[in-house]
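REVIEWER CHECKLIST
Item 1: Sequence provided? yes
Item 2: Single chain? yes
Item 3: Sequence as submitted:
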Amino acid sequence: MTMDARIEKAQLRYEQAVFGGRTDVLSAADRDLDAVEADLALARGRVAHARFLEQRVADERELELFERAAGLYRALGDTRGEGEARFWIGAFHQVVRDDTATALPAFEHALALATAAGDRLTVSYARRHLGIAAHLSGRLDEARTHLEESTRLRRELGFLPGVAANLVGLAHLAARQGRPDDAAAHLREAADLTDAPAARGVRRWVNRARAELAAE
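Item 4: Structure as written out by the authors:
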């Protein structure tokens, strides 16, 4: 693996400052390193979140990492990065702490930032989790709108495991709205999309949903 180009640039700027007297380059070095730190914090936070989903043991550092990333991205004027970090702050509150009320402003902020930045993947995540929140609150039509829009974006992006995950949510929603044929169709498509090894985790969700809906 090679060193991040931004770290290499910071090393070069150190040499320019120390040996060449170019102290004017140090601010640029700080910005490059802040961007690296933001990316690293976001990545570490996502790993902590994945570990929570597997082990169901909360790591409070997860929230600290996402908040650190959001703050750095905001200071850098990186709207796309901040939008992604704000989404994950919301995901922590909704998924780890089961606190959707606290999560909602973060999801809405993330949606606005990601939309402005043209980041369709983060828009799809924010829409998905806003849909989940609406579903839990009984606002079923709103939930369907969010989930369908998220699914549309994920299809456009070729993010098929994400499409399958949304179809599971749409199946539960269809069942609750008295549309059993739609629920079954969503689960059939989700199963087809989860044949690949990269989607085996979502396949477990499909199987669980089938069992739950069959028992209702």
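Item 5: Key structural point noted by reviewer: The longest helix spans residues 26-55.
Item 6: Recommendation: ____
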